[in-house]
């Protein structure tokens, strides 16, 4: 199992990242710094999280203290502005990340606009890539219908490198995942730990005992073995370490099938469900 994934534009992204959703700026500053010490090299933030400056500040502090090359860190943020409002939103993101020089990946956080608005946002993101200040662009919470429309833009110059979705054993989104992969788009899995709602599941508990790992590690490893890029969130320094300790062991084919069979379209965050967002 590789610790890195190569995106469709040739960029390389670490295959496990730290999510900082619902993390205060104070906690984000601490946990991001500690995550880098623990070996994380991929941090996922967003304008909506209101912690971008804390995240990039922690990255900058760690880079300076360790002398590590900026290229070793992959930083993601997301915008929720569309049309003519997208460009100034991107500029704000760049301003908040000036301590680290550039942004590795910006996503459209969700398709919460009409077709014209989404198109305008994508054009603005393409311009940001052309400027060199943003290395890659993608989307989040996009359904196949949104992706199809995007890929058919007459002025499409840059394909999305990822689609970030809620993905876990109870929400596998097989058809959408297949569509992404058929079009060379990697799938990032947010809420890979189901926001804690499925801790205590008897099969997951049994597997954690069998492999002598945590329930969270079982879920993260399931995500990796399915080819996703999981983004587990924690504010616990102890769990930071264990959540990343998922590369030197693997789930058996039978145990993967056991977890695969749990798919019941359980959406823990329905407000971000792409199937509920029409094209217009």
TrEMBL record:
Family stated for the protein in its record: Belongs to the aldo/keto reductase family.
Source organism of this protein record: Candida tenuis (strain ATCC 10573 / BCRC 21748 / CBS 615 / JCM 9827 / NBRC 10315 / NRRL Y-1498 / VKM Y-70) (Yeast)
Keywords associated with the record: Oxidoreductase
Entries under InterPro entries matching the protein: AKR (IPR020471), Aldo/ket_reductase_CS (IPR018170), NAD(P)_OxRdtase_dom_sf (IPR036812), NADP_OxRdtase_dom (IPR023210)
Protein name: Aldo/keto reductase
GO MF: oxidoreductase activity, acting on the CH-OH group of donors, NAD or NADP as acceptor
Site (described: Lowers pKa of active site Tyr): 78
Residues holding substrate: 109
Residue positions of the active site: 49
Occurrences of domain NADP-dependent oxidoreductase (ranges): 24-263
Gene3D superfamilies with a match to the protein in the record: NADP-dependent oxidoreductase domain (3.20.20.100)
Domain of life assignment: Eukaryota
Pfam families xref list: Aldo_ket_red (PF00248)
């Amino acid at each position: 199992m590789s610790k890195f994934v190569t995106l469709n534009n040739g960029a390389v992204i670490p295959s496990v990242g730290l999510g900082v959703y619902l993390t205060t700026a104070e906690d984000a500053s601490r946990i991001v710094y500690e995550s880098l010490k623990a070996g994380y090299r991929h941090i996922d933030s967003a304008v909506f999280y209101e912690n971008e400056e804390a995240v990039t500040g922690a990255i900058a502090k760690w880079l300076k203290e360790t002398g590590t090359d900026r290229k070793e860190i992959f930083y993601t943020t997301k915008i929720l502005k569309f049309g003519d409002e997208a460009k100034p939103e991107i500029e704000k993101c760049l301003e908040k990340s000036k301590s680290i020089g550039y942004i590795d990946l910006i996503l459209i956080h969700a398709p919460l606009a009409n077709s014209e608005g989404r198109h305008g946002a994508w054009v603005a993101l393409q311009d940001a890539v052309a400027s060199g200040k943003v290395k890659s662009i993608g989307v989040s919470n996009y359904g196949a219908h949104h992706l199809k429309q995007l890929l058919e833009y007459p002025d499409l110059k840059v394909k999305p490198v990822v689609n970030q979705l809620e993905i876990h054993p109870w929400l596998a989104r097989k058809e959408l995942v297949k569509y992404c992969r058929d079009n060379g788009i990697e799938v990032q899995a947010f809420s890979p730990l189901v926001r804690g709602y499925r801790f205590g599941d008897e099969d997951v508990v049994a597997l954690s005992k069998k492999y002598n790992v945590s329930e969270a590690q079982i879920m993260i490893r399931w995500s990796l073995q399915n080819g996703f890029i999981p983004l587990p969130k924690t504010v616990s320094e102890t769990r930071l370490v264990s959540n990343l300790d998922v590369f030197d062991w693997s789930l058996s084919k039978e145990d993967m099938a056991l977890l695969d069979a749990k798919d019941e379209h359980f959406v823990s965050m329905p407000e971000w469900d792409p199937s509920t967002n029409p094209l217009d």
